[in-house]
């Protein structure tokens, strides 16, 4: 099936089998920040932003992306350096194995598009779709709060 | 990759969609449940996204939800307009992941008919009505729906004498072992019970006859549909049910 959408700021045209998920397609394009967690959306390691909202790419069929804008973490580093939100995660030591980190950063970005100075509860709820088994969420939450200028 | 999918149909009308429904095909709206399971027997998806509305509005104390309205959209709207309405918590508990709430439609949540869904238990308790399309559109109570047809709209009351929602789970983000919503409609208390049971059960008790004995009796009746599993014995679940009924009744 043919589909046209915006991928990381650039027009993208795809012609894939009907059952192709967005996850399959992104990995095939070499966008490896989108990780395999499960096929069931249980981990959020496969998170992407679609029109500024967070979704699990393995639960979306590619053809549904017509005219939408898809962002993966690669887009954050496509300028001259890393995104300040990524820097905030580094500065707080909010990364251990790093597998879930792209999903956590995209989830935080989706929240900050809606709420500029979120509460801790709002941050917790926003990150709840991405499983992190290393950090216990303490440092990622701190990173998002500090980045947004919110008080802990 | 969902390998068994060979074709995706985008019908222009609900009549066409209903006629397209054949063996080895499935209606497809939000798709979060379908894509998670990827059943191999499904070869054709009938995409309803363009046909179903996601409109949410309140009119004369009735909340109307287009079947395609995503759970997150409903939560956001209710938080603004009815911040105390327990459906917000039921959605949050049914689906703790915002990633999935952004995708999952309320129609799909009903269509899946999972007793562990806090949302479904809530809709049963408040006696939500469904507009369902088969050959034409008709309205049916969620309690009487036979599971056939295309849900196009859900309507539910937003004002009650009182309402209470209780759930017991291993951790807040886990599916409930026991979930109960109770509603005081004036003369009667209405309860819906779900969780690790085989089905959602509905009970009605005259408000004047509510006491601890009634709570225990309901717990035993409802408990017959809860089996022993890794989460606990049947007796343990009856005990949880009794506590949930009592606490709900106290609030009502």
Global Rg of chain A:
15 Å
Strand arrangement, major sheet of chain B: 4-5-8-6-7
Largest beta-sheet characterization of chain A = 5 strands, mixed
Shape of chain A: globular
- Total number of strands of chain B: 12
- Which percent range fits the helix content of chain B? 25-40%
The number of helical elements of chain A comes to 5
- Most extensive interface, chain pair and sizes: A-B, 29 and 26 residues
Roughly how many Å apart are the termini of chain A?
Answer: 48 Å
The total beta strand count of chain A reads: 5
Task: State the oligomer.
Answer: heterodimer
Hey, roughly how much beta strand do the residues of chain B contain? 25-35%
Low-pLDDT stretches of chain B: none
Beta percentage of chain A is 15-25%
Distance between the termini of chain B: 49 Å
Helix run count of chain B = 9
Mean pLDDT of chain B: 95
| Dominant shape of chain B | globular
SSE succession of chain A: EEHEEEHHHH
Give helix and strand order of chain B, one letter per element, not per position. EHEHEEEHHHHHEEEEEEEHH
Radius of gyration of chain B, rounded?
Answer: 19 Å
């Amino acid at each position: 099936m043919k589909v046209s959408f915006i991928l990381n700021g650039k027009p993208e045209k795809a012609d894939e089998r009907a059952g192709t998920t967005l996850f399959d397609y992104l990995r095939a394009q070499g966008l490896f920040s989108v990780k395999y967690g499960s096929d069931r959306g249980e981990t959020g390691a496969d998170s992407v932003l679609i029109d500024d909202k967070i979704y699990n790419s393995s639960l979306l069929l590619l053809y549904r992306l017509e005219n939408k804008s898809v962002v993966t973490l690669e887009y954050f580093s496509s300028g001259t350096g890393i995104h300040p939100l990524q820097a905030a995660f580094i500065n707080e030591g909010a990364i251990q194995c790093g597998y879930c980190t792209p999903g956590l950063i995209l989830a935080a970005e989706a929240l900050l598009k809606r709420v500029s100075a979120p509460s801790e509860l709002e941050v917790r709820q926003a990150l709840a779709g991405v499983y992190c088994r290393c950090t216990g969420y303490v440092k990622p939450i701190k990173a998002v709060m500090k980045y947004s200028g919110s008080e802990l | 990759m969902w390998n068994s999918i060979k074709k995706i149909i985008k019908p222009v009308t609900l009549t066409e969609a209903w006629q397209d429904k054949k063996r080895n095909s499935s209606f497809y709206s939000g798709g979060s449940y379908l894509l998670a399971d990827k059943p191999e027997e499904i070869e054709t998806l009938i995409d309803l996204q363009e046909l179903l509305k996601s409109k949410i509005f309140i009119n004369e104390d009735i909340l109307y939800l287009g079947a395609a309205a995503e759970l997150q959209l409903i939560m956001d709207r209710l938080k603004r307009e009815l911040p105390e309405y327990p459906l917000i918590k039921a959605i949050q508990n049914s689906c703790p992941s915002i990633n999935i709430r952004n995708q999952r439609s309320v129609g799909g949540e009903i269509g899946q008919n999972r007793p562990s869904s806090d949302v479904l238990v809530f809709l049963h308790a408040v006696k939500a009505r469904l507009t369902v399309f088969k050959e034409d559109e008709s309205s049916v109570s969620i309690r009487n729906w036979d599971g056939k047809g295309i849900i196009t709209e859900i309507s539910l009351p937003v004002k009650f004498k009182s309402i209470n929602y209780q759930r017991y789970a291993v951790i807040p983000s886990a599916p409930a072992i026991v979930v109960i919503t109770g509603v005081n409609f004036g003369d009667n208390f209405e309860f819906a019970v779900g969780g690790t049971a085989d089905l959602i059960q509905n009970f009605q008790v005259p408000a004047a006859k509510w006491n601890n004995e009634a709570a225990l009796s309901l717990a035993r009746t409802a408990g017959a549909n809860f089996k022993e599993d890794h989460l606990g014995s049947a007796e343990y679940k009856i005990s949880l049910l009794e506590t949930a009924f009592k606490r709900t009744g106290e609030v009502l």
